[in-house]
DNA sequence: CGTGTAAGGAATTCTGACACG
DNA sequence: CGTGTAAGGAATTCTGACACG
């Protein structure tokens, strides 16, 4: 990766565009941030900037909300997902460690 | 593709962010549009929106300009590139036609 | 030709708050 | 709890123009 993040992860979209893209109001988008469901970056002046991944996350949140799921519960589910991901990554790293130990020591 | 365009092509970035990303002034970015080097979309209200592909294009343009290449010349080069792409695509389509003619008629 | 800048107006975004439920 | 809204201010964006070169 040339810049640390892919197009999908780079935070470059302003809240107005996110609102158009998701159909959510800016109020809703800001509230979901308050509830720690979404984590925009800030421009120098303080404007929120979102990634495509954030937009997709928001669409998921919107669907859950329509089903009546509360933001608190959505947060719980997100944390579970995150742990699963971490477990996966640890397995990968262990495997990599095994391979390096036997076949050589390429950093990264 | 789920929406006609990939993350790279979707026009969602405002001119201020493009300016930060490229280091070009808004004035320059608008001028390159005037010279038909770049083609942002417009939001409902009229604000320009760019894609990551546009951002990369602008970086290329900036490099050419530093070398003293004029916008007119840059445009010429772009048109040449475009023709090459089209020629490639025509070849692909012809090949596909050949295959369909011999082995079956799957549309698309 | 390519870019800076001041100008004026319209739309954007931000925060903190009140409202309803 | 989740969302709407009015409030006031600061930053954003737009266009058309003058300037310099």
TrEMBL record, chains A, B:
Q: What is this protein called?
A: MerR HTH family regulatory protein
Q: Which GO terms describe its molecular function?
A: DNA binding; DNA-binding transcription factor activity
- Keyword annotations: DNA-binding, Repressor, Transcription, Transcription regulation
Q: Repressor: present as a keyword of the record?
A: yes
Q: Where is the HTH merR-type domain?
A: 12-80
List the Pfam families.
MerR_1
Q: Which InterPro entries match?
A: DNA-bd_dom_put_sf, MerR-type_HTH_dom, MerR_fam
At the highest ranks, the source species' classification is: Bacteria, Bacillati, Bacillota, Bacilli, Bacillales
Which species does the entry assign this protein to? Sediminibacillus albus
């Amino acid at each position: 990766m040339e810049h640390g993040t892919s197009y999908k992860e780079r935070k470059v979209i302003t809240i107005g565009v996110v609102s158009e893209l998701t159909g959510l109001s800016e109020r809703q988008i800001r509230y979901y941030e308050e509830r720690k469901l979404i984590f925009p970056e800030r421009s120098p002046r303080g404007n929120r900037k979102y990634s495509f991944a954030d937009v997709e996350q928001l669409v998921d949140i919107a669907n859950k909300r329509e089903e009546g799921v509360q933001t608190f519960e959505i947060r719980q589910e997100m944390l579970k997902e995150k742990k699963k991901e971490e477990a996966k990554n640890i397995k990968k790293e262990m495997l990599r460690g095994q391979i390096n130990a036997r076949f050589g020591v390429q950093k990264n």
